Amino acid sequence: MKGLFGFVAFALAAAMGVVGCSSSSEPSGPHAASVTAVSGDSQVAPTGAQLAFPLSMVLLGSNGTPVQGVTVTWAATPPTGVTLAPLTSTSDANGIVTTNVTAGATPDTVTISATVPGVQQAVLFHTLVVNPCQYLAPASVGQTINAALATTDCNYQGNGYYYDFYLLGLPTGQQSVRITMNSTAFDTYVDLWNASGPYVGFDDDSVLQQVQNSELDIILPGDNYIIGANSFDRLRTGAYSINVATRSATLNGCRQVWVTRGVSLNDVISAADCADSAATPHHYDVARIIALTGTVLTMSVHSAAMNPAIALYSVSGANYDRTLAVANDDSAAGNTTAFIKYTVPASSVFDVLISGSSPTDSGAYTFDVSSSTTASAAAAAPVRSGRGGWHGGGFTLPTDPVHLTKPKT
């Protein structure tokens, strides 16, 4: 990952020694008496990435004003821990001196020293270089990030796909977001995990097999999530952009909108929605959800405007082919609410088709997905895999379902 600022929620020790007295052994030329405005300490970066901010400081003369023309020497311990560019830099008219830092090839804790003529002790900076598979760059709603997949990025699970990972925090309450990833260098692919473990969604093409940029629409509870920016094909590199934006908490006709357990949404069935192939078609919306072996999916559709129907299909193959799992019209005699409670025989992606019971049915409805994963309403949501420590030890992503519907090549 190039040019990204890594957030790791632990503090690095910051020790900077600055003493304002001169040494007779120092070289001739302009000298400083002290430094101020030291910036760039305690950054974190994955191997091979440039630190988000250069190291910098302002050099002051004995009268307390910025001094120009002082040559500063930069060095790293261990020397291979980072690359410094330049190794020597000269203060400008404002007394500012800087160097850029690129993380080395091996995770390590690196100390960088700046030797300033006229200042007795070197100014120290600290950088943590981490495994790219244990690194989360921050992402936020409304932000567009320009980055690149590189051979130094995380080769996730050793399968030949380079990943950049982002931590997305969403506020408490139900949220609806669109995650887009665009590139002219490769066919993009986006994965999404809940930070507690479950894999909750993915997208390959915004228009299946036509537009090779990714667009993941999802309605989900506020929480911390991990975005995995990667490629459809193995060993692809190049520039890309990724953006997270809010969207209305509604479905989108034929194009699926992902949902998770515990969400509820209001929408309308109309002639503008997706239509089946019947001579007099039913119109419907599509929600998509991941469910794991042995869990129970409980869903309902309520409407005062029409007699709703719901159908659950497992999805597989490069064309996202659907196989009917279960369908329902009326939950009970005299009750037009559509209701499904389905025990999942094998982990899969499922499409939920919501429509009226007859082709003439249309109108507003409410779609609810229970948070329960068992027949008992008291069950907690599943966590497929534990994680390593977020602090210091990085993180370990859970094993994903290998893109259940579209195996990569």
Task: From the 3D structure, determine the CATH topology of the largest domain.
Answer: Jelly Rolls
- Number of helical regions: 0
- What's the CATH architecture of the largest domain? Sandwich
Q: Which structural class matches the secondary elements?
A: mainly beta
The quaternary organization reads as single chain
Radius of gyration (CA) equals 27 Å
Q: If you had to describe this structure to a student in words, what would you say it looks like?
A:
With 409 residues, the protein is mainly beta. It has three domains: 97 residues, Sandwich (Immunoglobulin-like), CATH 2.60.40.10; 114 residues, Jelly Rolls, CATH 2.60.120; 113 residues, Sandwich (Jelly Rolls). 0% of the residues lie in helices and 45% in strands. The chain is built from no helices and 29 strands. It is elongated and about 95 Å long.
Please write out the topology.
Layout: E1 34-39, E2 43-46, E3 55-60, E4 71-77, E5 82-85, E6 88-90, E7 96-103, E8 108-115, E9 123-130, E10 137-139, E11 144-149, E12 154-155, E13 162-169, E14 174-182, E15 188-194, E16 199-203, E17 214-221, E18 224-231, E19 238-246, E20 257-259, E21 264-269, E22 274-275, E23 283-291, E24 296-302, E25 308-316, E26 321-328, E27 338-343, E28 348-356, E29 363-369
Parallel strand pairs: 2-9, 10-13, 17-20, 20-23
Antiparallel strand pairs: 1-3, 3-7, 4-6, 4-8, 5-7, 8-9, 11-19, 12-13, 13-18, 14-17, 14-19, 15-16, 15-18, 21-29, 22-23, 23-28, 24-27, 24-29, 25-26, 25-28
